[in-house]
Amino acid sequence: MVRRRKTAKADARAPLASPGMSQPENERYTHGHHSSVVAAHARRTAEEAAAFLLPFLAPDSRLLDVGCGPGSITVGLARRCGEVIGVDSSDDVLESARSHQADQGVENLSFEAGSCYELRWEDETFDVVYAHQLLQHLADPVAALREFRRVLKPGGLVAVRDADYGTMVHAPIDPRIERWRDLFHEVARANGGEPDAGRLLLPWVHQAGFADPVTTATAWVYADQEGRDHWGELWAVRITEGAFAAHAQEFGLATAPEIADLAAAFRDWAARPDGFFGFIHGEVLARRP
Fold first, then answer.
1. Is 276 helix (H, G, I), strand (E, B) or coil?
2. Alpha-carbon dihedral sign for residues 100, 163, 261, 252
3. pLDDT tens digits, 84-117
4. Phi then psi for 77, rounded to 5 degrees?
5. What's the burial of 9, exposed, middle or buried (CB within 10 Å: 0-12/13-18/19+)?
6. Which long-range contacts (CB under 8 A, 24 or more apart) does 55-58 make?
7. How confident is the model at residue 22 (pLDDT cuts 50, 70, 90)?
8. Helices and strands (H, E) in the chain, number of each type
9. What's the CA angle centered on 86, arms 85 and 90, to 5 degrees?
10. Which of 24, 132, 196, 197 could make an SS bond with 136 (beta carbons 3.0 to 4.6 A apart)?
């Protein structure tokens, strides 16, 4: 990958002309951009999803949010920084992000399409690069992290957070939900991703050349009726109407009737007053040397 260096006349804050966005051929977004997926992402907040980063932000920080989705986290980050740029690969999702930004009246924020593997800024441009639930979907997460390091200033922070699907547990036990978890691993890996990314963030950050990493973990738990209704219906719709169903059948990993039964399992679980579902997210904060 070509590394672009600043010249005496270059403005380090300005995007460069696009050098052509690259992506591994075997990489595909497992969730897709079905409305259920985008709506779920729009519920996320900086207060929850970036809690491990917020104490380190400064009013003059320049931050890049890679894989920003519909921008709900990005807006929260912008309220704590001098300037924030959100990057995502989906133009439709970026339109949702811009609409949310306008509704919130946040002006120190912009959104644009881009590739995490070939960012359109010069070296040493940002104070912080943040990525939430992105690395798990990448065929080469270390290459993306190296690109994050390139655009960070010396001493700048990378902050990454990803779920770990291998930690997903539920009760009462339903073999169909266990089958869904196994199937999700198969589909995600067939798409080039790593669904257990949460536990791998630390070695990836080391391989990418960052220093002084601090690793934490937080949990999402759905154990009240509101949480069960949200989580159960989210997955019932996501696995039947989103990209997951098409991918599973394309790879020959599941049939349409089986996928429908997995959706029914989530709805059955959600209806149980004693239903529990929980899992962890790995989080790493590290510095560019």
1. strand
2. positive
3. 999 999 999 999 999 999 999 999 999 999 999 9
4. -65, -40
5. exposed
6. 56/128, 56/157, 56/285, 57/81, 57/128, 58/82, 58/127
7. low
8. 10, 8
9. 145
10. 197
CA distance to 108, 131, 235, 238, per residue, from 31 (Å): 30, 17, 10, 7
Given the structure tokens 């790593």, which residue do they identify? 194
Q: Is 283 helix (H, G, I), strand (E, B) or coil?
A: strand
Q: Please, are residues 63 and 77 in contact by the beta-carbon 8 Å criterion?
A: yes
Full DSSP string of 145-168: HHHHHHHEEEEEEEEEEEE-GGG-
Superfamily of domain 35-287: Vaccinia Virus protein VP39 (3.40.50.150)
Three-class SS state of 130:
strand
* Alpha-helical segments (H) within the chain: 35-42, 46-49, 72-78, 91-104, 141-151, 175-190, 201-207, 225-241, 243-250, 256-270
Domain residue ranges in the chain: 35-287
Q: Is 212 left (phi over 0), alpha (psi -120 to 50) or beta?
A: left
Six token digits for residue 225: 């009726």
Half-sphere exposure of 225 (CA within 13 A, CB side): 2
| pTM of the entire predicted model | 0.90
